[in-house]
Amino acid sequence: MKTTSILLFAMLCGASMMPAAEPSKPETKKEEISPATEIILFDGKSLNDWESVDIGASGAVELEGGLMIINQGDSISGAVYKKAASLPMTNYEISLEAKRLEGVDFFCGLTFPVGSVKTCATLVCGGWGGAVTGISNIDNLDASENSTSNFVRYEDNKWYAVKVRVTPENLSVWIDGKHLIDQDLKDKKVNVRPGPIESYLPLSFTTYATTAAIRNVKLKVLEEPKKTP
């Protein structure tokens, strides 16, 4: 009986010394970005959120005097935004200012998501010899071939205000406040032009054989349109 009592006492003491199980922590939900929120994508202080991509003989991307400088390369040069996956894929606006410092081709190639990180398009400002402005690609046609194509005379060393709006139904572009592109997306295929630009998905700035400066890059979250009953 003594042996049994001793064993029972030892078991009770051991149980009391075991650590209590920690209460399970509630799962944290991914923070949602509310409409009208403005996100600074480039603040002029650092390029920590941007990654330069070299496809071979690309120019360096540098911070100089509060500006993102994309230096001229043999073809495409540019940088990708590292945190693109945390941003909205639709119902947003991106605004910025850009200018061409040297070269004769596009100085603002803004690649951006249209619905997902795998479905992207590129706004080309000053392509095909310096004047073509449009979206690549719509229905597999690039900015020089589709209905978004416009001819804009850009001056060197002059800032241009650029704004792109993405919704599920539409892509719109403003240059210096002028509504230049109003593209309905219904039954349209959206994709980037096959080739080097595919290395710059889903959100980036690029140039072609041109040196450019970029500043004041912001993203604004838009209200989703209310569905009519």
Secondary structure: elements and pairs:
Layout: H1 2-17, E1 38-42, E2 50-53, E3 61-64, E4 67-70, E5 76-81, E6 92-103, E7 108-116, E8 119-127, E9 132-136, E10 150-151, E11 160-166, E12 170-175, E13 178-184, E14 204-208, E15 210-221
Antiparallel strand pairs: 1-15, 2-5, 3-4, 4-15, 5-14, 6-11, 6-15, 7-8, 7-14, 8-9, 9-10, 11-12, 12-13
Description:
- With 229 residues, the chain is mainly beta.
- The protein has a single domain, classed as Sandwich (Jelly Rolls), CATH 2.60.120.
- 7% of the residues lie in helices and 42% in strands.
- The protein has one helix and 15 strands.
- Strands 1, 3, 4, 6, 11, 12, 13 and 15 form an eight-stranded antiparallel β-sheet that branches. Strands 2-5-14-7-8-9-10 form a seven-stranded antiparallel β-sheet, with no helix packed on it.
- The protein is globular, with a radius of gyration of 26 Å.
- The N and C termini lie far apart (80 Å).
- The N terminus is likely disordered.
Q: What are the main properties of this structure?
A:
single chain; about 230 residues; mainly beta; Jelly Rolls; eight-stranded antiparallel beta sheet; seven-stranded antiparallel beta sheet; 1 helix; 15 strands; about 40% strand; globular; disordered N terminus
Summarize the structure.
With 229 residues, the chain is mainly beta. It contains 1 helix and 15 strands, in the order H-E-E-E-E-E-E-E-E-E-E-E-E-E-E-E.
